From TrEMBL:
Taxonomy, superkingdom: Bacteria
ABC transporter substrate-binding protein PnrA-like domain: residues covered: 42-331
UniProt keyword Signal present: yes
This protein's UniProt keywords: Signal
The protein's name in its UniProt record: Nucleoside-binding protein
Pfam families, alphabetized: Bmp
Organism whose genome encodes this protein: Desulfallas thermosapovorans DSM 6562
Signal peptide: 1-27
């Protein structure tokens, strides 16, 4: 019998070891498909009301989407759909499409998406949905927003100090509590520094339509307003103010880039940290849709950094900047909040007694205007 050489034996052993490893020798039962799944990224989808370059609401969310991917390398948030109308059928179709594309977490970022989000969520219990600015929740649906009224109040201080005609125009989207409480907070800031000033509201009944928003701003300027504030997604009200040689208060993101001679500051959103914290909690299995503020899962403010003011323009004095900082500290420290009495409504009736603080539920469902607002909630 022919004896094998040492080299041949070594080659045989090497082949045997490779074969054993390939068949899972040593007690391993790893499933190649499972291994591949572990390496797949967590897909997160977004639904937007406007374009990602609107310099406003949608852009603020889209910047946060990019922040999410930068902070969490295991996340793929490349699926987003722009310009989705608040039509129940269309919104439901888009949300469903994102689910079918494999997204396990979906953020729907406008009030009108609430009912479609809840409806789709019932069909896909293994997917987590987060709806912005609404109030309905479910085991796999959270509702999130920010205490923008705090930043609105601070911007009202700036506007109240700037007006010479004592008439400030406010281009407003929809007559819903979200917008109404923002107008009220802004007006409380205005009247703190200028009790003679009034805030005149014009409703556009649209979140984003640059032409309609600009026409509304022009009408307010023609009525004598010399500062234009807004709850709208485009910068066209600020541009109208600049063209008229007046000042403005933007919204959503820093609108001074669009109207540098007019925009004194803008209440702005910073959704990035919230998105990161939420996605991490969902992945780790610690997220719950339990209510923490009225009917919201999350409601962060100045303290959490969810809302803030954009940098001041050169037309804002140091005196005003210091006043804003003082009021900010009162809010962040918890010493005081915006809707603390005494607060009167348009008729002069006391709605919040002196020393009383409105509850989160009362603030979230606000449907009346404070004294100093000119206009109707309808």
């Amino acid at each position: 019998m022919k004896r094998l050489s040492l080299k041949a034996i070594q080659a045989f052993v090497a082949v045997l070891l490779v074969a054993l490893l390939a068949t899972g020798c040593g007690g391993g039962n790893e499933d190649p498909a499972a291994s591949q799944a572990d390496n797949e990224k967590l897909k997160v989808g977004f639904v937007y009301i406007g374009p990602v370059n609107d310099a406003g609401w949608t852009q603020a969310h889209d910047e946060a989407r990019k922040y999410l991917m930068a902070e969490l390398p295991y996340v793929d948030a490349s699926d987003y759909v722009e310009n989705v109308p608040e039509n129940p059928t269309e919104a439901e179709r888009v949300i469903t499409q994102l689910v079918e594309q494999g997204n396990k977490i979906i953020f729907t970022t406008s009030f009108g998406y609430m009912d479609p989000t809840i409806k789709v969520a019932q069909k896909y219990p293994d997917v987590t949905f987060l709806h912005c600015s609404g109030y309905q929740t479910a085991p796999n649906v959270g509702a999130y927003f920010g205490r923008m009224y705090q930043a609105r109040y601070l911007s009202g201080l700036v506007a109240g100090k700037a007006t010479k005609t004592n008439l400030i125009g406010y281009v407003a989207a929809m007559p819903i509590p979200e917008v109404i409480r923002g107008i009220n907070a802004f007006t409380l800031g205005v009247q703190k520094v200028n009790p003679d000033a009034q805030v005149k509201v014009v409703w556009t009944n649209t979140w984003v339509d640059a032409a309609i928003e600009k026409d509304a701003a022009i009408a307010l300027l023609d009525a004598g307003a010399d500062v234009i504030a807004q709850h709208q997604d485009s910068a066209s009200p600020q541009q109208a103010a600049e063209e008229a040689g007046k000042f403005g208060i933007g919204y959503n993101s820093d609108m001074s880039k669009m109207a540098p001679k007019a925009t004194m500051t803008s209440p702005v959103w910073n959704w990035g940290p919230y998105y990161v914290d939420t996605v991490k909690a969902i992945k780790e299995g610690t997220w719950q849709s339990t209510l923490t503020a009225g009917s919201l899962t999350y409601w962060g403010g100045l303290k959490e950094g969810t809302v803030d003011l954009a940098p001041f323009g050169p037309m804002v004095s140091e005196e005003v900047k210091q006043l804003v900082e003082q009021e900010r500290e009162r809010i962040v420290s918890g010493e005081w909040d915006v809707f603390t009495g005494p607060i009167k409504d348009q008729s002069g009736a006391v709605k919040v007694a002196e020393g009383q603080v409105m509850t989160d539920d009362e603030i979230l469902n606000m449907n009346w205007f404070v004294q100093g607002v000119v206009g109707s909630v309808e």
